[in-house]
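User: I'm putting together notes for a lab meeting next week and I want to include a structural view of one of the chains we've been expressing. I don't have a solved structure, so I'd like a prediction I can at least talk through. The sequence is below, exactly as it appears in our construct file.
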Amino acid sequence: MNMFGKTTKLLVATALVAGLATTDAMAKKVYKWKLATTWGPTLSPFIDAPKKFAAMVEEMSDGRLKIRVDASNKHKAALGILDMVKGGQYEMGHSASYYWKGKDINTLPLSTMPFGLTTPEQYAWFYYGGGKELTQKVYAPHKVLSYPGGSSGNQMGGWFRKEINTVDDLKGLKMRIPGFAGEIMAKLGLTVTNIAPGELYTSLERGTIDALEWVGPGMDINMGFNKIAPYYYTGWHEPGLDLQFLINEKAFNKLPKDLQAIVETAMKAAAHDMYLQNYHMSAEAWASIEKDYPNIKIKTFPKEVMDAMKKVNLELREEMKAKNPLLKEILDSQEAYQKKARKWTEMSDYLYLKDNL
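Assistant: Thanks for the context. Below is the predicted structure for the 357-residue chain, given as structure tokens.
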């Protein structure tokens, strides 16, 4: 064998060794991320979803991806999650898409819409009905990715200091209610505000607001809202609120493919688990509500009020569609999916419950 052949063999062997060493080093490289949440450190189950997600990622990656979860009391920006993930201060966030409607109106329907999709319908739309593609289309200009982060299911309509019998009873009230529902309520004469979760009770106690909606009995009862506003109304505005995981796109693309898959799988598992946990919490709370909290007065909004809400809802939706092509695309997609899926929802859930209650 001539010298050239020996040199070529040596180079090939060296390259193979170097390649194996590089591959081995990549496999052992530890990535450290930070995740910021809108929620306080004890706000279960919302804060539990990102914590469980981080634990699953670390276990499934054999410690190659470690994610520190920072509650809102640490970063002090409960409603600044999108900006922090977009800017790279945090690789990930856990929040709710409709909080960003002031920055980008297209984010609004990706959480939930009044009289819209239920939780199973919403998740089916996202993963199998074109929702994922539309969601990433919305967040692409922000250089972030958005995935479902856990659903609260159908939320309650809120806590009120006084009983609501007519539309006029709503006028002049100050209410914490986010998202599109807030715009509907504003059209009906309320002064609407969005307040971070940790400030809700204090705002109600001090009279800064007269009413608020939060989630459902599993989360609401522990907040003590009933001590100030005992009228508790059933829902209409958030039939399937979906929280969100936000990911800095640049950081995600730097991960090896296997870690990307682990992140996506863990988000899906944590989101589903949060829905189950919240459902259980509400079932437990509701089972004891009459005995333990006799002052709470469970109400449903009168037909006059519901009809007014539905009317304004349709008017505002059409106005938004006319102004924004992408928002129209999202709303049309959700409406079409709801029309299709609702027939099965009615057969599988409503008629079963109707005949067996």
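A couple of points you could mention at the meeting. Residues 29 and 181 are 46 Å apart (CA to CA). The chain has a mean pLDDT of 92.

User: Perfect, that's what I needed.
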